[in-house]
Design goal:
The chain has 192 residues and is mainly α. The chain is built from eight helices and no strands. The protein has a domain of 95 residues: Cytochrome c-like domain (Cytochrome Bc1 Complex, Chain D, domain 2), CATH 1.10.760. Keywords: Heme, Iron, Metal-binding, Signal.
Length: 192
Amino acid sequence: MRSIVNLQITMLAAGLSILALSSCGPRGNNPNVEIIQDMMESPAIKAQEYDENSPHGSGMRVPPEHTAPVGFEPYKYGNDVEAASKGLKNPLAGQTEDDIILTGQKYYETNCAVCHGFKGEGGEAAKSVVSSKMALKPPAVVSDKVKGWTDGHLYHVITMGQGVMGPYASHVPQKYRWQVVNYIRFLEKQAK
């Protein structure tokens, strides 16, 4: 009799184990039980939305003071074009490999050609919709003036802007700006 009870207990334990293990597997489209609200899917708030939980009711958060994004390097030259011209050295100087020129061309044509022209001709010669409406025409990047600039000066102008041209630091990632400089040098050689 005792062996029958032990057998029944063993069978019951095995049945419960199988039931417990089978409940852990995938169950089709049935979602898991959500014990703590918003843990499985956090509520998304767009930057422009009102957020009752933020200090000023704005969905846009200001980063904490004295913090920087991972990999961010602050631009140490600020508005000092002379220091940038002397201090910045092009790590890709003279390199005209296809991948460097094509990456520079991509960013130039996306961000610069709208005003300076696809061949860097600038002004009226650029024949772009944007530059034709500008009172002060953008200069040619293939001009003798720009050819006389150091690569650091050109990099600085792309990063911080100059005159009526705003900064393009947020448009052209830091790691691709030297490739844009090399592409402009490539355009200068083509313009001869």
